[in-house]
Structure formats: structure tokens, C-alpha cells
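Risk register update: the risk of archive-format incompatibility is retired. Evidence:
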Amino acid sequence: MKTDILASFPAMMANVREKEPIVQAITNFVTVNDCANIILAAGASPTMAHEVEEVAEVASVVQGLVMNMGTMEDVEAMLVAGKAANEAGVPVVLDPVAVGATRLRREGGKKLLENVKFSVIRGNTSEIKHLAVGTGSTRGVDAAEEDKITEDNYKAFGYMARELARKTGAVIAISGVIDIIASPDRVFALRNGDAMMSRITGSGCMLTALLGAFCGGNPDHILEATVCAVSLMGVSGEIAREKTDAQGAGTLTFRTHLVDQISLTDAETLQKRTRLEELELAEKATKESMKVYAITDRAWLGGRTLHEVTEEVLAAGATFLQIREKELDEATFLEEAKDLAQLAKKYHVPFVVNDNIEIALACGADGVHVGQSDIVDKDVRAMIGPDKILGISANTVETAVKAQESGADYIGVGAVFHTDTKKDAQSLTNEELLAICKAVTIPVVAIGGINQSNAADCIRHGADGIAVVSAICGAEDPKAAAAAIKKAVNDALSI
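Archived output:
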């Protein structure tokens, strides 16, 4: 709940002001003075060392490191400093300024992400969008109009930020009219700040520097530190605007008030004025999540519990989980589903219930998977709502297209090979699988008799991933089997 984040603010602020962490800021020359002043205002101590010959030595003894790509001549120094900070356990904050704008910036950003582990990545919507999906327009150093956060799309940015957090291991902070902050587990929307902040040079750079101070003072609580710092910047901007308007002054005065207010705002004021929403975001069906789609079947447990086998499979890298129960009574089914829903959440894996919409809604699953017969005269999408995952089985081009038109997020296609779990299912040819995959735009997972030896064949014929039952659940070592199948899929996708 958001209340625990708000409750952490006094400690986050006190740790910065009492510990006075030293923050190394490798930042652009346009805002270097502003960044140093905002670090001081927060209660920390700045060092602006950026020469490649000394950055590693400095980075290994400071408490926080900030990298700002506003000017690109320092990228090599950032790489050297970042690696040294990682080795020393120092939190590193990245500001990927205009990362998608030019080849130089794209290559520089890519090199940094490949070589440095970041604690926080903060940018505008276009910058974060480029890092997350490889696209994103820029307007100088500002976000493009089409990328801006609104009340209509902020949850979509929440999903994007969460996926990037999972990909990088960093807390992601997106600056906009609504700020989005995401860890792999939690996502927040923050509605503080003032439009005048966009009328002064370097407010984004200053926020990044502020994040360095808060992470440096709170290295074991990066998410809490990030939310607190972003909130402090926004609330300070609001109060600065009030003071500026009272004087009848303009942007230069506002800039001064903003820096002042960072040092003046106390924890109680910050808690009272912070407008924070924690987003409850379901998992989504993506091509990435289709890679290894695990389906439970207690017939293969061999005396072990469903929980035990499922956790081994998820720990080995299964990317999607479906519970399928044909024989259990409703009460027992519900309890099993609730247990697996929590397990899937632990591993950040989408979880759906096979065929039973009521159980899916009752257990808190991310969605439901249904067959063709289940969508006849029934609007499943309307029943589960717009945010839940809907998977639909198909075995022809016609049924696949129909499934997509019915609101499916993904399609399960099979049986691809003969399978003992559905003995009456007719196998598809490679050509039929390929035709189905080409006919739809949503992800496709192949199912039916798939194992390590034939998984790659499904990928070569268009599938985004494979669904497995007995090949994992019936294996002597389910964890090893799941890992081997995932490797086979990844190898096939990389060709």
C-alpha cells in the first residue's frame, strides 16, 4: 500500500541530512552548478569529478553516482566510473538525456546499459520509451507531444516502466505531468509539480542529482528513496510557484525558490502534500512472456505437491503459468488457484486459469484461458474486464482470427504434436502453424506434445513460445527440464 511509502519519508530525508552522503555527478556543463546546488540543498555533498583519469578512484569512495548524458563527451568516463561504483556497491543513477535522438546517443545509452548496473534510471517519457521498446520521439531534450503522460494513458506508462524495471533491475522514474515510478514489484503515479518547472533549464537534471543524494543516503531502500525524492522535487516546485506568484516574479526567481525549498521542506509537509497513487497492474501477455508457458497437471506430480513442482518450474525460468484442473471440486480448485496466483506474483509471471472464469476472478488471477466452445454466444472479454488477460485456443486460421476479434491477448495453437494430455486432438502441420501465426498480430504459443527436442521447430514456424505440460511436470527433475526447454526456445529465437 502507498501508506508504507509515505511513512518512510521522514527516515529517507533524515538519512540524507544526517549522513551527508557524497554524490559524484558526471553531468552536462549546462546544469553542473544547478546539480551541485540541489545536492547541497538536500543535505548531501557534491563532487563533480568527471575526468576519465580519476573517476574510478572517486566513484569507489563516494556514496552515490549520477550519470547524465546531456553532453556526450563524458560517456567513457561514465563507463569507467559506473563499473567502479558497481564493484564498490555504490548506487548509480542514470539520466539518458535524448537517448533516442541520434546514433551517438543510442549507441552510448546501449553501451552504458550493457556495462553498468543502475539503481535508478530517470528520464522523460520519450527517453524511457526508447530504452523500453526502442522507439520514442524527441523534441530536443524534451518528450515528444505524442509521448506525453495523460490521465488516459498513465497506466500504460506504468506497465512500460515496470517491464523496464524487470529488464534492468533498476527503479524506473518517468517525469511528466504525472510522474511514474516503478520497481519490478510496485508501480506508483505521482501528481505533484508545477508547469513552471519546465520553463527553467535543468529541472530534470536537478531531479536526477537529487535522486543520487537520496539513493546515496538510503542505499538499501532505493524504491522508497526514489519516490521520496521525486515527491520532494514536485512539492518543492508547487511551493516555489506559490512564493514566486506572491512576489509577482518570473522564472529566475522561481528557480531560486525551487532550490531553496528543497532545503526547507520538512517530512510532515511532504507527506501532507504528496498526491500518490499505487497502481494495481495485472501481468500482461507479451511475446516475451510466451516463451515457456507452463501448464499444471497433477497427474504428473509423482507424490509431490503442486506448489513444490510449480515453484521449481518458475525458478527455472518459466515465463507464463496456467492452472488446469478438470477433476477438483470448486472449493479445492479455488484454494489451489489462490496459492499459485501468489507464487506467480512472486516470480513476476502472468497467471491464468483454464476454462473457469469464476475461479479466475475469485483467486486474483491475471486472466483466463478458454477454448473455442467457451466463446460461442459469450463475451468473455466483457465478463473479465479490459485489464485481464484473455487467451483463446485455436487450430485453424479462421478460429485464430475469430479469437483475435473476440478480444484475445494471445492464442494457444495446437495440438502441434501428438500429446497424451489430449489424445483426441489432431496434430497440425508446420505449414498450418505458420499460416496461423501470420494471420494474427497477437502473440501465439504452440501447445501439444512439445519437449526440448522439438521446441525449436515450433519457433521456426512462427510461434512466439511453447506451452508444456508433461515435458516439465512429468520430468524427474522439473527444474532442469524447464531450464533446458527455455534454452532451446531462446536459442531458436536468436537465430
